[in-house]
Amino acid sequence: MAENKQIPPQFDLNAKWDACLDLTLRRFFYSSLAGAFGGLLFFRSPVTRWASIAFGAGVGLGSAYNECSLKYENSPPKLVAPKISVATASQHEQD
């Protein structure tokens, strides 16, 4: 009597968590690796090399956070430049 109920993709939180965790780990690793390569290529001091690794890790975590927030549809509003018409611009120049 057990029915095989399928969960709609928009409500399947386990799949979303798995995808976000996978994305976060990949982006953290690859951006840290890119930061390490950049640090070895451009910097001599160990402190700046570690800083470039930390910067790469931060970029990876931030991009993963942004992508995961889009998956959960809780993304922050996108900043869009206001549209200025020619009439409005010429009206401000006359004042």
Mean pLDDT: 81
Task: Please outline the major beta sheet.
Answer: none
Number of strands: 0
* Helix proportion: 55-70%
Helix-strand category: mainly alpha
> Which stretches are poorly predicted, pLDDT < 50 over at least 5 residues?
none
Family: Belongs to the MICOS complex subunit Mic10 family.
Subcellular location: Mitochondrion inner membrane
Protein name: MICOS complex subunit Mic10
Main location: mitochondrion
Describe the structure.
The protein has a domain at 28-74. Helix 1 packs antiparallel against helix 2 (46-71). With 95 residues, the chain is mainly α. 68% of the residues lie in helices and 0% in strands.
Q: What is the element layout, followed by pairings?
A:
Blueprint: H1 13-42, H2 46-71, H3 86-94
Helix pairs in contact: 1-2
Give a short overview.
The chain is an all-alpha fold.
Notable features of this structure?
95 residues, mainly alpha, 3 helices, flat
